[in-house]
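Quick entry, no commentary yet.
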Amino acid sequence: MINRCATAAFLLLICLVVSSAPAQEGGQQQPLSRIAFGSCANQDLPQPIWFSIVNYQPHLFLMIGDNIYADTRDLAVMRAKYGQLAANHGFRKLRQTCPVLAVWDDHDYGENDAGAEYPLKVESQQIFNDFFGLPADSPRRQRPGVYGSYVIGPEGKRVQVILLDTRYFRSPLKRLPAEQRNGGGPYTANPDASTTMLGEAQWAWLEEQLKTPAEVRIIASSIQVVPNEHGWEMWGNFPHERQRLFELISETGARGAIVISGDRHLGEISQIAPADSGVPYPLYDVTSSSLNQPEGGTEDEVNRFRLGENYRDVNFGTITIDWQADDPTIELEIRNLRGDAVRQESTTLAELRPQA
């Protein structure tokens, strides 16, 4: 059991980080060792999983998309659906327990599978920023898109949280003819190098973030980065952008990168080797979805990068860092409704560095 006084002190310190607004969104000296995350929370359905997340006692919770299901061009409806989430007892308890950082996916952005073409993205961003309480002087309020970065912890134990916006700037998806789907999703890779996932401003920003000193980097993408075969939304829809991300991690010398993702209404842990990515160490993609409406994909859905099996019930993800070990260990887990680990992989800081 974590000491409650220590937890309260940590909560106070990290709140200063979340509410601050210098270039890196602030920093503080308490090591971050328990991170929880999840996606896809339908406000019209029960959400008992919040209590299991609270029981895990995270230092930080990351909401990585589909935080509500707005699916509307009526801003009053969007605000009302955020209001439903705000009123949920379990979610209120979570916000009292630890700081919450968030980025959106399509349904809270405004429309299913939408990208840059969504006509109310400026207004939707304002509602998002207001709901998650971003300070008036936060960099995330000063630019288009909801991307942001936070560095937490003292030198030698720094965790950088990078929240990517995969909606505001994204080019249209390329559809696959129905007769070619073979049970998979409706999209296929777009070879047009002029298309984008992040937009040039966000790419330039990301390059600077990856140069920021940190021991562990959690890159939150609302859609999967490593899996690229299922035909639903993923970075593989824009293979040149996926490869650009891998190359940027390598070229900036960014150590300790771990991707977390959502969207798919299933949980799984994927890993891509250096030979397949160009990243000079194994890159994990921990997918956690859905918080309350599971059973996406299929049990045998193709993913050559998956470690073990996927998990198609309600789930949330956790990252636990043991900073006391000589080579700090990192546990990557998918947890079920009760909070039990159902999928797990372990790594170390040394393994997330360029290999000799």
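second:
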Amino acid sequence: MDKDYIKKAIKEDYARAAQTGSGCCKSGCCGQESTKDISMDIGYSRQDLERIPQGADLGLGCGNPGALASIKPGETVLDLGSGAGIDCFIAASRVGSQGKVIGVDMTPEMIEKAKAFAEKENYNNVEFILGEIEDLPVPEGSVDLIISNCVINLSTRKKEVFEQAFKALKPGGRVVVSDIVLLKDLPQVVMENRSAYTSCLSGAIRKDRYLELIEQAGFEKIEVLSEDYYPLIFSGLSKLNHPDISKDLEKAAVSIKIIAFKPSGN
């Protein structure tokens, strides 16, 4: 799959998720669990989920980066790939009226949905911007914290994502990411599967390479906070009958949580 096809597929699938209010379940992978149950399974509290606008949680994440970020009142927070706004709305309550939260997403339908929630619920400290995380529409050195939830794996230009994140942060700022990375290579049939890509599997890269890209962008104090195996069923591949797809793949990918800092002098 070439980069243009991948970008088009991501926009189409995530536009559909925004329009239908269905995230993970677009692949039929959620079973009997509700979106709220799935979100609680990956680290969100019931209290936070009940506070945000109904419909902002599409079950698209693989963790809760905001919970690991120690968000402080008055901070400016940037969410890469903000979707319908779940992490932005949770962060908004933590930064307070003196802080600001900015969500960036490349899918117009997601931005429209998030803006409607913000307007309806009077989130005056939240802004949603249509844009790409490889070319962030924010000034350099303008944010205290960057979060991202299961989005960077979708980018075909991950190096640029981390470089842009570094530029956007103030000196001493931090990035907290929840994402999918690989512990071993995937078979070609998986790499060429559209559903596997838009479900956050085929676009993932090896864990060591992911950490290397963060370091090369200029970050320091890089720490893996946790990692858990990413169930194959979440990728939608359980429906793909192929001899190269075996139970060995169940331990090929992990959901990883990472924190890293921009040096104070930069």
